[in-house]
Every structure is written in C-alpha cells, then in structure tokens.
Automatic annotation (TrEMBL):
Coiled coil: none annotated. GO terms for biological process: methylation. Residues 46-136 form the Methyltransferase domain. It comes from the Bacteria. This is Methyltransferase domain-containing protein. It comes from Undibacterium hunanense. Keywords: Methyltransferase, Transferase.
Amino acid sequence: MSENTMRDYYAQRAQTLEKMYQKPERQQDLREIETRVQDVLQNQRVLELACGTGYWTERYAAQATSVAATDYNQNMLDLAQAKSYPDGKVTFALADLYELPAATADQYSACFAGFFWSHVKREAQTGLLAHLSKVAGKGTTLVLIDNNYVEGSSTVIARTDLEGNTFQLRKQEDGSRVEILKNFPTDSALRKKFGPAVRDIRIFRNTYYWMLTCVLK
C-alpha cells in the first residue's frame, strides 16, 4: 500500500466519511471520547494533523484557544472549511505532515490527531514521534484517538505483514476494493513505542475507541 493509495482512497470517501460516526451501537462511546477530547484541549493552542472533514475540529474548537488544522487532501479540507467554528479561532492549511515547518516558541501547546495513528506503519512510528516534537514543539501535549478492533463491527483484517502491520480491504465509491493499512495497538504496544519519546502517558479505552495523551520530549 502506497501513500498515494491512502490519499486517493480518502479523497474518494470524503463525502461519505462521516457515516462511520453514525453507527448506533457506537454513540455512547463516541460521546465519551468527544467529552474527553474537549476537556484535554480546553484553552489549548492546537495543531491538528489529518483533520479530514473537520468532524473533530468542529467538536473541540469552542473549547480551544486556537486551532491550526491541516490535511494533505483538498477534498477533505473543502468539507472541513464549510463547517461552523467560533469566529477567528480556526485556520486551515493544505499540508503534508512531513513537510510542516518546525514550531516556533510557544506556537502550540497541544497536537491532536483523530484516527490517524492506525494508518502509520509500525516501523515508521518512532521517526514520526521525533518529527512531531519538531513540528508541534517539545513539551506539547499530544492527543491521539483511534479505533479498537471489535469483532462483528470492525472491518475484518485481511492480512498481517512481517512487521506486524494489519490491513483491511475497503470498498471505494466506485465499487472497487483497496487494501488499507489499519493497526490496532494494545496498551502495552503503545507504551513501549511512545515511552522513549514522551512522558506522562495516559491511555483510556471504551469498547470502540481508545485515547492516548502524553507530553512530547
């Protein structure tokens, strides 16, 4: 699976992506995660990565001091910018995470990414954490949320590669199928991976979602 495959897949899904938040059995867990995100990002200067359609941006922007939301997919940004936000709080930018400039002093106090970490290959995660310390700034609070694998609800795992990455077959809008990287890390795997690069790791899980907060070193 190439980076272009992932980008093209989400470009196709832009108009229907938020359907994943409409599953009735997930509503209680989703509201719980929303409340936790709002609480931790309250009064924060947030850099949001992979903001997608702005679903999460819209839900925490009122609590934040400011939000700089980025995504590398223009289709997603068009939808995100059409949502409602408090006046003057939110800016959007078409940007590749790996090309973002280093943060200036006190530019951000928090970095948020929703449903992004699961699409990062295990072998690339350590390098990504080091990069986040540069683009968000050392001492910044990192907040990640993502999916748990739930038998009978999640898309089945189609294969696992030699590095332990798992992949799903997803249906595109044109009816074709594409293989998408989707990892489901355990708490111990998250702590082992994040431990050398961050401090104050806290992990919360309900049935369908997990949330990790920490401070970048």
